[in-house]
Amino acid sequence: MNSFIPVCEPEIGEQEKKYVNECLDTGWISSSGRFIDEFESKWAKYCNRKYGIAVCNGTAALQIAVKALGIGPGDEVILPAFTIISCALAIIYNGGIPVLVDSDPDTWTISVKDIENKITEKTKAIMAVHIYGHPADMDPVIRLAKKYKLAVIEDAAEAHGALYQADRKSASPKWKPCGSMGTVSIFSFYANKPITTGEGGMVLTDDSKRAEKIRSLRNLCFLPERRFFHNEAGFNFRITNIQAALGLAQLERIKEIIIKKRWIGQEYTKRLKDIKLLQLPVEKSWAKNIYWMYGIVISEKSNINAFRFAELLKDKGIETRPFFLGMHEQGVFRKMGLFLNQKYPVCERLSKKGLYLPSGLALNERQITYISDVIHRILP
Ligand SMILES: Cc1ncc(COP(=O)(O)O)c(C=O)c1O
Questions:
Q1: Could you tell which of 83, 188, 202 is best to mutate to test the pocket of ligand 1, judged by most ligand atoms within 8 Å of the CB?
Q2: Which domain holds residue 196?
Q3: Which of 72, 96, 179, 316 has its CB 3.0 to 4.6 Å from that of 156, i.e. a possible disulfide?
Q4: Annotated catalytic residue within 42, 122, 174, 193
Q5: Are residues 139 and 228 part of one domain?
Q6: What would the pLDDT profile of 61-108 be if each residue is shown by its tens digit?
């Protein structure tokens, strides 16, 4: 096989074109229009939430979520070291202090057993991030948050449609959608996400006052009764009707999108599970993983790191991406004097040895078999 297999590409259907064309034909191309309201309310409903406020991207969603919780200068927020920089930046942009925790070695999400040690008088929130489509273990996070009166920021950017089994030790455990569990939860709809608006994001909450505040912050905090008068510093984080039109059309077929994502994950696992030098994504009994991106981690027993591995795959026409680099290893934060001399061994191993394989919706069985065969030849 000579053709190139991209790591991910969006799948745009006829309905997306129809809705986007409606925006163009009617002139509703900026941040008002029927698609925004409909996308917000239908996404909130899909996630079992009362309010959805769409914004221009997931990073903005995090920033506004932190602000709407009243987190400001000197306040600490606990988050995993292994995540995208947007999470730490959202705290820093609000004057807060990010406090890091290592990851669970199996799910790669926040290591819940390490959170309590990091709670201080200044802690205001815990930010849990569902990584590569697998839910973080939310029950213990929520229990700690209740115990210490903290907010929970749930980053579900990579976990559209993933499910978490809450209260699993009780007689009646409940499957809950990712995005339904935080005091505020956020999503990204970037082009590589299961549901995309090109660029886009959403903040979800069940609190009407907080929803109102987020709506106001999204749009420069215009006072409704006196336009162009502002009592607070807001942002222009608006989304366009065109983006929401794309998102709504995608949401209409989310069921089949999630089925396809899960199928891709399971097909890779079937073919790769016998390779001893590879760690594959898990699906805990309390989780439904959507395998947003199919991540693999090479054993420390192999001297190949993720970058060398990526080159070998690229030579065979297979595009990959490296895993996140820990927040404590980021140059920008070192320059700020943050996280100096801190060590997070699981995160560091994942960053060195992890990468993700092509996982786009157009991927077919022949390609998965080809990619798996190439990997078998590199790591017998
Ligand atoms: C976990 C997580 N949070 C937040 C974001 C930020 O989203 P965006 O790229 O839309 O700003 C991403 C982006 O991929 C992400 O993976």
A1: 188
A2: 14-251
A3: 179
A4: 193
A5: yes
A6: 999 999 999 999 999 999 999 999 999 999 999 999 999 999 999 999
Answer yes or no: do 369 and 315 share one domain. yes
Q: Is residue 5 part of a domain?
A: no
Find the helix packing angle between 85-93 and 58-68, rounded to 10°.
40
Give the span between the Cα atoms of 246 and 225, in whole angstroms. Answer: 32
Give the amino acid at 238. R
Active site residue 193: yes
Residue among 350, 298, 359, 333 nearest 5 (CA): 359
Q: What local confidence, expressed as pLDDT, does residue 85 receive?
A: 98
CA distance 161 to 46: 8
The more confidently predicted of residues 169 and 74 is 74
Domain boundary (251, 271, 302) is at 251
Within 8 A by CB and 6+ apart from 213, the residues are 68
Residue 133 alpha carbon to ligand 1 centre in Å: 12
Please state the domain count of the chain. 2
Q: What share of the chain is helix, strand, coil (3-state, %, to 5)?
A: 40, 20, 40
Q: Is the pLDDT confidence value at 274 over 90?
A: yes
Return the axis-axis angle of helices 241-251 and 14-26, rounded to nearest 10°. 150
User: Which of 210, 231, 251 is a domain's end point?
Assistant: 251
Domain for residue 7, yes or no? no
Assigned domain for 9 exists: no
DSSP string covering 157-224, please?
Answer: TT-TT-EEEETTTSSS-EEEETTSSSSEEEEE-BTTSSS--BS-EEEEES-HHHHHHHHHHHBTTEET
Please check whether residues 202 and 313 belong to one and the same domain: no
Same domain as 191, residue 121: yes
3 domain residue, yes or no? no
For ligand 1, the distance from its centroid to the CA atom of residue 156, given in whole angstroms, is 9
- In the chain, the percentage of residues whose pLDDT exceeds 90 is 98
151: left (phi over 0), alpha (psi -120 to 50) or beta: beta
| 200 HSE (CA, 13 A, CB side) | 28
